[in-house]
Every structure is written in structure tokens, then in C-alpha cells.
Write a structure and sequence with these properties.
2 copies of one chain form a homodimer. By secondary structure, chain A is mainly α. The first copy, chain A, has 10 helices and no strands. The structure holds a DNA duplex.
Chain lengths: ~210, ~210
DNA sequence: GCAGGCTTTAACCGAGCGGTCAAACCGATC
DNA sequence: GATCGGTTTGACCGCTCGGTTAAAGCCTGC
């Protein structure tokens, strides 16, 4: 790629800001990070953040939106591939886990918003509901429509099993002793999730 | 109770402040609530908050400590009662769920701290590790020491299934349509948890 | 009724926040 | 090399934050 087209040059600083915002918001939380922090992290003037993004809230919205687009795409791909019900459900959970594993800050961002009633709760709500509908779809035919074995209960249980592994990590350190995020630890958690899904599906069928 | 002993009178305003802090921190998050908000909520002067609690951070610490003491006691009682392993484990999960159900703000407070690296992460850490050790103890004899079926994996999965029901509530509204916190909905979730524990224990035994 | 010690208050402080703005800068185009 | 529009900047604004302080209020024992 020779001379950069003007378009991409314009976006360079904006991308820098977005990256810094992603890192800081994800690690310290929306409230705990100031626009000055973001600007310093990106190595630009504070006013430039407002020039490109308008407000702190909108900047945060763009960070979230970027994640959600990638998130939706990753899960959609997993659902669309062929296979029987068990296979597809297992792949959905896998894709969910993989996405969180390679976007750990995202998991923290989501929980921050949900639990703190952040400015973009609506975005999170939409996505969570979509995910729930996918679970419902994936479990259609074996899970009852209502009652304690309904798909929505499975969704809360399974998504908790996936997400909490990442969000609880800093607090579980002493008990886990090895690194949560090492290759081996992640592989083991993935195995646990596969086992969980198998046991849950079997449990539903037996009921 | 006739004339109040001087001691209890002294604590009256302090209790008022603590109650307001509990409610506001639990619902809006530590950062989002100012000491002015707490004072107004309690109907006292802002300076009084500092007179009794020294700082915002210490006030928050006392809110958390009160919860943790009650929390530990509730779970300890459940563990100490007699019964075989399955019975005791089920009762531990039940006690955990019940405590969260009657202290919904607590669940939110914990996740806020964990995910936002709040000032009292240490307190949360200690308690979470204790809870994990209890799980390990309760599952001793049937769960393997290591690998994807180890007690610590069960702990993350089960505690996620309990806690996320409460913390995700505001975001799942549209999909759940009935009230998460109604008598019937709670009873149904409890049934789901019982079923989950049964299925997990069975799954471990079959493995 | 007044002296002395908790309790409660209004007023204040410095710092940091999100956000604005006018001026400087800079790379094209003529 | 003048001009012009899109960047980038430093200085600034009003506001709210956590926290302090000096004085007023108030109860109690004498």
C-alpha cells in the first residue's frame, strides 16, 4: 500500500482514540476513566476526542457498537454452519466462549453496564435478547416452553458459566492459583462447558 | 421500649445514613452516587456522613461488611445442618439463592466491585474464596481434584447460575416478560437450580 | 443556669470533571 | 505564495466532587 488515501488518514487519530478508550473503559470502567485519560492514552489533545466523537458517552457507544458487531457476526457464523441440534448448540456456546476469550475487556464492559445501569443499557439489552432467542432456537424441540427447564433458564445458566469465568477471574486468583487465561486453563474451561452442555441436554431429555 | 439508651440514640443517624448508602450504591453504583446524594437520601447534612464514617470509601466498606457478615452466617447455617452430601450441597445452593433473593442489591454490589476493580475488591475476594472452599468441601469425594469437572469449575458455573439471575434481570426484561422477582418466578428459578445441581452431581458420578 | 462535650450545620476549599472556543497549524489547490 | 478547509491545540468555563472547619445547637450533670 503506497500513499494512504485521504480517507484512512483522517481516521487514523480517531482509531487511536477508540483503541485507548476501549482499553481504559474495559479495564477501569466508564465512570473511572476521564476523557483526559483517554486523550493521554491515545497521545492526542483532549479537545480532539470531542472533535471526532462529540461526547464521552458517544465515544463509549462506538466502543460498544464495534464489539457488538463483531460479537453478532461471530455467533451468527457458528449458528449457520450445518450439523444436528447438539452439534450446533455446542458450537454456539463454543463461539460465545471464544469471543469472550479473545475480547476479555468486552465481558467486563457488558457486566459493568448491566450492573451499573450505564448510558448504553439499551444496546446491551438488545444484544442479550438476541442471544437468548438464539439459545431458544437452538434448544427448540427438546426444551419445554415453560417451567424450570425452559430455554431462558438454560440461557442464564450457560451464559453465566461462560461470562463469569472471565469476569470473576481477578477475584478468584488465590483459589485458582494457575493463570485463568493461559492456554491450558482456557482449554480446561472449554472442556467443562462442553461437558456442561452435554449434561444439560441429556438432563432435559431424561426429564 | 421506654427511653432509648444513649448508645442506640447515637447510632440512629448513622443507621439512617448506612441505609441510604446501601440503597443508592446498590442501585446506581459506587461511582455514580455522591456523598451529597447519600446525605440527602438519609435526610441529614453532608458533613454528618464524614463525621460518622470518615470517608466515602469507608462508608461503602461498612455497607459491604454488613452484607458479608449476614451472607457468611446464612451459608454457614446451611452447611452445618446434618444430611448426606447431596442434601447438604443442595441446601448450600438454596441458601445462596435465598440470600441473594432477599438482598438483591448485594448481588449487584459484588459484581460492580469485581468488574470495576472497586476499592474493596479484597473483601469480595476473601468472601468468594471462602465460598469456593465450601463448594470444594461439599463436593469432596465425588468431584475430581483437577480437570474440567473439578469443584472450582462447578463453583463458577453454579454461582454464575445463581447470581446472574439477579444481575441480568434488568437487561432480560423484554425476553422474560413476567417479573423476575415475583414469588412464582423465583420459585421456578429455584427449581431450575435444584435440577441443575442434581444433573451436575449425576453427571460427575457418571463420568 | 451555666459549663462542657457530643452532634449537627452552613459555608467553604482545591481538584478534577465534561465540554467549548478561538486561534494556530498544515497540506492541498490555484 | 496567497488562500482555504479540515485538523489540532492550549486556555478556559461552569459545575460537581470528596473533604474540612468553625461555629451553632443541644443534652446532661452540677
Amino acid at each position: 500500500m503506497p500513499a494512504k488515501p485521504a480517507e484512512s488518514k483522517r481516521k487514523e487519530k480517531a482509531a487511536l482514540i477508540l483503541a485507548a478508550a476501549d482499553e481504559l473503559f474495559g479495564e477501569q470502567g466508564y465512570d473511572a476513566v476521564s476523557v483526559r485519560d483517554v486523550a493521554q492514552g491515545a497521545g492526542v489533545n483532549k479537545a480532539l476526542v470531542f472533535y471526532y466523537f462529540g461526547s464521552k458517552e458517544e465515544l463509549f457507544g462506538q466502543v460498544l457498537t464495534r464489539y457488538y458487531d463483531a460479537h453478532r457476526k461471530a455467533l451468527q457464523d457458528a449458528l449457520e454452519a450445518p450439523g444436528d441440534l447438539d452439534e450446533r448448540f455446542r458450537r454456539l456456546v463454543d463461539a460465545y466462549f471464544d469471543f469472550m476469550a479473545s475480547n476479555i475487556r468486552f465481558a467486563r464492559l457488558v457486566q459493568q453496564q448491566i450492573v451499573g445501569a450505564g448510558p448504553h443499557l439499551g444496546l446491551i439489552q438488545d444484544n442479550l435478547c438476541e442471544l437468548e432467542r438464539w439459545t431458544e432456537h437452538a434448544l427448540a424441540g427438546i426444551a419445554p416452553k415453560d417451567g424450570p427447564l425452559a430455554a431462558r433458564h438454560m440461557f442464564v445458566t450457560i451464559s453465566g458459566a461462560v461470562i463469569n469465568y472471565f469476569t470473576y477471574a481477578p477475584a478468584l486468583g488465590p483459589v485458582w492459583d494457575e493463570d485463568h487465561l493461559s492456554e491450558e486453563a482456557m482449554a480446561e474451561r472449554r472442556e467443562h462447558l462442553h461437558w456442561l452442555v452435554r449434561v444439560l441436554v441429556q438432563g432435559i431429555r431424561d426429564a
